[in-house]
Design a protein that fits this description.
Strand 7 and strand 8 form a beta hairpin. By secondary structure, the chain is an alpha+beta fold. Helix 2 packs across helix 3 and helix 7 packs across helix 9. The protein folds into three domains: 112 residues, Alpha-Beta Plaits, CATH 3.30.70.1050; 96 residues, Chitinase A, domain 3; 163 residues, Trigger factor, domain 2, CATH 1.10.3120. It has twelve helices and eleven strands. It is elongated and about 95 Å long. The model has no long low-confidence stretch (mean pLDDT 92). Strands 6, 7, 8, 9 and 10 form a five-stranded antiparallel sheet that branches.
Length: 428
Amino acid sequence: MNVTKKELPKSQVELTVELSFEELKPFIERGAESISKEVKIEGFRPGKVPYDVLKRKIGEMSILEEAARIAINKTIDQAIKDNVKSEPVGRPDVNITKLSPENPLEYKVVFAVLPEIKSGDYKNAKVKAQEVLIKDEDVEKVIEQLRESRAQEAIADRAIQEGDKVTADIDIFLDNVPVEGGQGKGTAVLIGKNYIIPGFDKNLVGAKKDDVKEFKLKYPEDYHMANLAGRMVEFRVKIMEVYSRELPEVNEVFAGAFGLKNAEELKSNIKKSLEEESKQKEEQKIEIEIIDKILAQAKFGDIPEMLINHEADAMLHDLEHKITQQGAKFEDYLQSLKKTREQLLLEILPDAVKRVKSALMIREIAIEEKITVSEEEISTKIEELLKQYKGYAKVEERVKGHEYRHYLKNTIANKKVMDKLKEWNLEK
């Protein structure tokens, strides 16, 4: 096997692989055998058709094409391994360039490789952590949310008051033209909770069932839907039902609903949860700051477009999932931005590049510092997950798969690297 290597732009490599006719012969035999199993020829069993008979039946080139397919599958990995030091990424593009009877086989394979990285100094970023402090009002806010979620509701035949819940049909207009997606049937509104935008619920106070309220409000300048941000909008609200709401007292009974003894234990648990959540957010902030400082002094070769495009697609998918989970339509979100999916994808690209660089940098540091993950570590984590999700067949099947094992290896390695980066860069 003769291989010629050529460097291409954007971290791509082209290999021209040639197999002599002698090297190709075993694959021609296997190709003929493979085809003969599929082609029915009277007088011969499947897989036992003589070469000359098969050649007359389907043509020699059909046999050679099957032989080339088998030969490429068997030789491509070795060709890449022997001639390319960088790690290939993605699926290679393969094209047969020479194939004829009693002649060598030649094929070209083009693929992307991970870029060269000069990591620079990644041990002196000097990042300072902020102290996590949970105030009493933070705890009280959570308790109030829990009370709201367990409020007792009853239909009230009276005018709307502060603290009530209202169901209403809502229509939104811009210059007397209905806003697309701006209609809501039977929408629940809590009076006193600034539904939609500040001031909306206040306009409903005093109304009764079947009343129609019409009013105007200005949307905040930073509202997420660009077509409404900063605009004066007309609302038409028909009251469908009014509910009084009685919030439970914070006592032993209320705490017992959460498996706790009393209000003090409930507050203590909430405070611990908030502290843990705040610590996690602070950890994320620290990690981002460390990575940003390291990336600022690192140097990267050309990053394969496929890595960036794949990351951008994943980010767009995550955004779409988040919006649909909130009950909105992604198409409406795009219309509010006055952008197409492709335009939004272009805006995401810079962040996608940063994410790819971060992942490549962490991988490079793991190599330089010889940070590895053993098969035992992966197996232990898999066992923990299987115990956690026992009885969930689909989850168990995924966790046991080869791809998930590879995912876990990367995840554990990344955590090890980040732990070391914080050890090196976090000021005491």
